[in-house]
Amino acid sequence: MSPHPSPRRLPALVSLLASVALALGVTLALGTGSASAANILANPGFESGALSGWTCSGTASVVATQAHDGSHSLSAAPSGSDTAQCSQQVTVQPNTAYKLSAWVQGSYVYLGVSGSAVQNTWTPGATGWQQLSLSFTTGSSMSLTVYLHGWYGQPAYLADDVNLDGPGTPPTTSTTPTSPTSTTPTTPTSPTTTTTTSTPPHNGDLPKHILTGYWQNFDNGAKTLKLADVPTTYNVIAVAFADATSTPGAVSFTLDPALSSKLGGYTDAQFRDDIKTVQARGQKVIISVGGEKGTISVGDSSSASNFANSVKQLISTYGFDGVDIDLENGINATYMGQALRSIHDGGGSVITMAPQTIDMQSTQGGYFQLALNIKDILTVVNMQYYNSGAMNGCNGNVYSQGTVDFLTALSCIQLQGGLRTDQVAFGLPSSGSAAGGGYQSPSNVVSAMNCMAKGTGCASFKPSATYPEFRGAMTWSINWDASNGYGFANTVSAGLKSLP
User: Fold this and answer.
1) What DSSP letter does each residue of 356-418 carry, written as one string?
2) Distances (CA, A) of 360 to 272, 334, 462
3) Which of 233, 324, 369, 418 lies in the 20 to 30 Å Cα band around 483?
4) Which one-letter DSSP state was computed for residue 254?
5) d(CA 260, CA 216)
């Protein structure tokens, strides 16, 4: 072990470091005192008792009841369409190293910078105050925006003692906040540590916008397909379905003999190879549980363990990327949530749901509660916008299935209820033969997606905000779509590519 530098050697060491930094074009910000002594932010601890120096969106205020240090802190409340961002612009030195930190309290709280540098860190939340911090080097620009924000539909968050350590000029303090600098937040998914300095990926490393389809492990008159025949327009393939066993909660999977015969002797080994084939093409394959005739019930700890263990075994045996929950005979949010967390920890990175429309009309419903309970590991909710008749929209009006309004006005219930934008997608039949009612043209689906993501293509209902992270669509089924020349996938996939 090398000895510590003596006081006599320290100036020489600093000089050497400065020379190296100069050669690299980077300025070292070396403080001689505490970090707070070099803080170039205005009103960093909100001790002015006001938001002076900060510009905030949504509902934000300074409170004197919960401070990390001193007597005041920031309290900001996100909504279904706003992250409650508070930001501050400062003048910095180009090509210079800085350190940013803040103490925060709440779920999905972000700390980041944009402008001369782009970086962020976030926390999924825990009891009490947590410190977020990141180090970065500025670029050629001298303008830097420091920001804090929460996440759509989450409770109010607290922030205090924001510190930007390095050379620069604080902004002129103003007592009247103005419109915030726009910084698009990243999407939190599946955090494995309390904080991270990298952008969290979408669940299962999926694209920003996705198309999910169900592959039928049976023959009901739709075109039969080997799994490898599914076109790449489908990002997620849900294998329908796993079967209930005699053990409460447990499931199994067997390739349907009638389907195998119709496909010329499609074997279990070929099916497993096909899973690897489509995964190599970038598609995800998940095992779906339930369906119209599914009888699986997870209502206690024992059945939750049985369900989780059996699904994890299928993941291990077949290489599935995760699980889809399509139970239409009721759901227990507590125990299914327990099971899904175990599955996620066991390698099921893609977790989707396909509730019926009635299941997502209120946050008091079991499906809605389940989605909110596992929000941190949930990939997407593909609500079934068919076989339901008329339903209430988020504005209290009643809308009929088979219309653009039915898709948009019901989707905003999920957003207002607390789901992230990237966790909401439309579920539609791929043809008139695929469902008893509710079919609408793929072009309608594209119009509804554009309405949600861009505010264009809306019918009579137009959401109060745009949701560029809107996830996409699902269809029942790939086989019925194949029978119709893949009219659904081709049109909707093209529409997804046009979204922001």
Assistant:
1) BGGGGS-TTSHHHHHHHHTTTT--EEEEE-SSS--EE-TTS-EE-TTSHHHHHHHHHHHHHTT
2) 34, 17, 20
3) 324
4) -
5) 12
Mean pLDDT value of segment 145-164:
88
- Smallest CA-to-CA distance from 132 within 163, 87, 157, 167 is with 163
How far apart (Å, rounded) are the C-alpha atoms in residues 339 and 336?
Answer: 5
**Residue type for position 270:** Q
Q: What is the pLDDT of residue 381?
A: 98
Angle at 192 between CA 186 and CA 193, to 5 degrees: 90
Sheet (strand 157-165) strand order: 59-63, 73-77, 157-165, 97-105, 130-137
Tokens of 448: 């509804």
471: DSSP letter: -
CA angle, 259 then 289 then 482, to 5°: 45
Rounded Cα distance between 117 and 266, Å, is 54
Cβ–Cβ under 8 Å, residues 320 and 285: yes
Q: In 434-499, at which residue ranges do the beta strands (DSSP E only) sit?
A: 472-476
Return the H-helix or E-strand segment holding 453. Answer: helix 442-454
pTM passes above 0.85? no
Query: What's the one-letter identity of residue 207?
Result: P
Residue 198 has pLDDT above 90, yes or no: no
The length of the chain in residues reads 500
Instruction: State yes or no: cis peptide before 477, omega within 30 of 0.
Output: yes
